[in-house]
Amino acid sequence: MICINGLLLSPLANAAESLQQAWEQGLKRDHLLASSSARQEAAEAQLAAAKATYFPKLALEAGYLRTESEPAAKISIPALPMLKGASLPFAQDASYFGGVTVSAPLFTSGRIAQGVAAAEAQQQVSIAQTRLTYSELKLAIAQSYVQVLRAEHALQVSHSHVQAMQKHRADVQALHERGYVARHDVLATEVALANALQWQLQAENGLSLARAAYNRWLGRAYDDKVELQDLVTDPGNERRDLHQSLSAYLLAAQEQRPELQALRQQSQALQHQAASVKASHLPQLGVSAGYNKLENRYLAQDKGWWAGLVMKWELFDGGQVRQQSSQLSANARAVAELAQDNQEKIQLQVRQAWMNQQETRQRLGLVATAVEQADEVLNLARERYRSGLAPNSDVLDAETRRLQAYSNRDNAIYDHELARLQLLYAAGMLAAHHQ
């Protein structure tokens, strides 16, 4: 047995899996995390596409044109009446054409800049959502890990309960055979032993279910063997962050909780989108240039360079742009309100997690003494019963109290570990926390 802070725990094999290893394995194969990573890649591509709007565009155009007849212009010169009704061809009825064009925006009234800013904010949203999925996954794996440890110790306690009842049954039967105790004591002890065996079966089933749930997180077969390092005896299970003040955790949650970051960035993205849409109603200035070739025997020069400056200002569109911008602005305000509501909920969550962690720490100081006292009370009750100084019910009650003391000890240990992890999650520190 290993004693940690007065608590007796069973030693585990060196090859047992640590919580850090469980996290690494679970994070590799989780589908939700992979989906979040793919969305983050999509947001990065969206940002690159928005920035590409700044760059010049190069286009190549070519084609073949066929008309029913050669295009011609009517000639009407009053000084030359003999040409009346004549026509003068100016293009071929079949021709090839081609050209290359370069165009670039010069001034867009902030439309492109706001679009890029919106894409940057949306990228931060995807990063925050990935961190949220990462943090939730780590907490879920840790909860399953703790549940396995809790179930293992519950099974150990049930084994010790069965052994204690079997030992007491042997004492009662020996005393009954010598005529020192009534058969009622034998029957009461048999009932208590049957209850102990039933509880042991329930503990075995609970451990099997806990191991199956844990294996699912790691992508293993449900019935694979599970051997875990105890969080209390694991040297890699560091306990920094436990003694910070409540205000420090509240501040950390406000700055680091991925949900708040995602909502804040989403609000900013909508604000930038609204500004970009609004800017599209303002003057847009661009430049373009190119080289064209047109097959036409009637032209003196059928190829050449060209350049131009283009300005577009849409003065009236029935209010469409204004309404679209208003819609995005309203959505931005709605998301900002959601962020404020979530911040208040998270503050309550952090406070509750911090208080639970403080409460479980205090419980740890009591359970070790309670276990020692329960063992002593049981030994005294057995001695008094064998000496005829106490009834059988005193021994059964003492064993029940011992069982409760051991269960309270294990619950205090793992409630404390779980409260620590939940506090890190509530403060937004679990995603970056190295176990």
UniProtKB/TrEMBL annotation:
Q: Any keyword Transmembrane?
A: yes
Cross-referenced InterPro entries:
OMP_efflux (IPR003423), TolC-like (IPR051906)
Q: Would the keyword Transport be found if you checked this record's keyword annotation?
A: yes
Pfam families, per database record:
OEP
* Primary localisation category: membrane
- Compartments it resides in: Cell outer membrane
Task: For this UniProt record, give its keywords in alphabetical order, as a comma-separated list.
Answer: Cell outer membrane, Membrane, Transmembrane, Transmembrane beta strand, Transport
Q: What is the superkingdom listed in this entry's lineage?
A: Bacteria
The UniProt family comment states: Belongs to the outer membrane factor (OMF) (TC 1.B.17) family.
Protein name, UniProt field: TolC family protein
